[in-house]
């Protein structure tokens, strides 16, 4: 799935809003996702090496937000079931970790 510039900006904003809503720190989220804070920042900025990483982050943030009894900000591009996208590795997404960087 290729996003145009507007979709990329919107998705970046949605991830950032949900990150803030989650209440977790960059260091905490990085530890939970088995990566570095630097790499997590790259994913938040939509500069990940893998297409699956924004989905992993989305799922993580959604779980944290819902566990706090809140509702995540809706996404416009990261929608549906990742299994429905042939180019995504569902196994990678289900593992719930980002690449080590």
Which quaternary structure do these chains form?
single chain
How many beta-strand segments?
Answer: 0
Total count of domains: 1
Q: What's the Cα radius of gyration?
A: 13 Å
> Which structural class is indicated by helix and strand composition?
mainly alpha
**Morphology call:** globular
Span between termini: 23 Å
Mean pLDDT: 89
> What does the largest sheet look like?
none
Number of helices: 5
Query: Portion of residues in helices?
Result: 40-55%
H/E series: HHHHH
- Beta fraction: under 5%
What are the segments in which pLDDT stays under 50 over at least 5 consecutive residues? none
Q: How does the SSE layout of this entry go?
A:
Layout: H1 5-22, H2 26-32, H3 37-44, H4 53-67, H5 90-95
Give an overview of the whole structure.
- The chain is mainly alpha-helical and 101 residues long.
- The chain has 5 helices and no strands.
- The chain has helices at 5-22, 26-32, 37-44, 53-67, 90-95.
- The radius of gyration is 13 Å and the shape is globular.
């Amino acid at each position: 799935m290729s996003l145009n510039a507007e979709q990329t900006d919107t998705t970046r904003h949605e991830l950032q809003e949900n990150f803030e809503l989650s209440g977790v720190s960059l260091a905490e989220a990085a530890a939970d996702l088995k990566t570095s804070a630097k790499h997590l920042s790259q994913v938040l900025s939509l500069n990940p090496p893998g297409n699956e990483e924004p989905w992993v982050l989305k799922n993580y943030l959604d779980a944290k937000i819902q566990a706090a009894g809140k509702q995540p900000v809706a996404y416009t591009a990261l929608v549906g079931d990742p299994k429905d996208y042939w180019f995504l590795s569902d196994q990678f997404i289900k593992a719930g970790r980002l690449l080590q960087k």
